[in-house]
Every structure is written in structure tokens, then in C-alpha cells.
Design a protein that fits this description.
about 120 residues; alpha/beta; Rossmann fold; globular
Length: about 120
């Protein structure tokens, strides 16, 4: 079976490396980018889901998902990840955009539970 591809967008290079390593170890195919603007150029048709940090320079996670939803009619499952944003605001944003969220710091099993739930076997790869 093909590996499920997950786009991971986080300007924190250490966090990006950690998330991609966890996902790779669990059999996913993570594609890591450090810029939401760069991520907008990605054709998401082969992706099972998107994980994006909320607080990023130039374009934050909220603007990123809004651009994806508005310009592409994109329905790829999306989850916010953040250690800085107000948790109540994360819940509000997640509901607004039909997304999930995971607060940093998180344990590997929490990340994997989220990704497995949002990108189950048989999801695009």
C-alpha cells in the first residue's frame, strides 16, 4: 500500500524535523516546508492531510488555510499546530475552517492519533 503523504508547514526548523521524523517512523510520507507561502504552490491532490503551525512570519496558519479553502476549493483535511496561540482561539479557528488542532508541546502518540484519525488508511497518497 502507498504511503499517505502529509504536508507539514512550520517555520521552526527543529519542530518541522521532529514532526517529519515521527511521521516517517510511523509509515507516512511527510513533506516539510518552512513557509506557508511556499506551501500554497503545492498541488495537494495527492495529499492525505495538511498540518500547519499557526504562528508563522509573512503568512500565518489561519491565512494559509483561508487561502487554500478560498482559492482552490480544497477539502484536504487540515490541522493547526501551535504552542503560542490562545487555545480558545485555536478551537474557534478550527471550527471556522473545519480543521482540527494540536497544541505544542505534544507527545508523538498524540500527533500520530490525530494524523491517523484525519488521514486513515485509504486516504490519498
Amino acid at each position: 500500500m502507498a504511503k499517505r503523504r502529509v504536508l507539514v508547514v512550520d517555520d521552526d526548523h527543529l519542530q518541522l524535523a521532529l514532526i517529519t521524523e515521527i511521521l516517517e517512523g510511523a509509515g507516512f510520507e511527510p513533506v516539510g516546508l518552512s513557509s506557508a507561502i511556499e506551501a500554497l504552490r503545492v498541488d495537494l491532490s495527492g495529499y492525505a492531510m495538511v498540518l500547519a503551525d499557526v504562528e508563522m512570519p509573512r503568512m500565518d496558519g489561519r491565512a494559509f488555510i483561508a487561502a487554500l479553502r478560498d482559492t482552490r476549493q480544497c477539502d484536504v483535511p487540515f490541522a493547526f499546530i501551535s504552542g503560542k496561540a490562545d487555545p480558545r482561539m485555536l478551537v474557534t479557528d478550527a471550527i471556522k475552517y473545519g480543521a482540527e488542532f494540536l497544541a505544542k508541546p505534544f507527545e508523538a502518540h498524540e500527533l500520530l492519533e490525530l494524523v491517523e484519525r484525519m488521514a486513515p488508511e485509504g486516504s490519498p497518497s
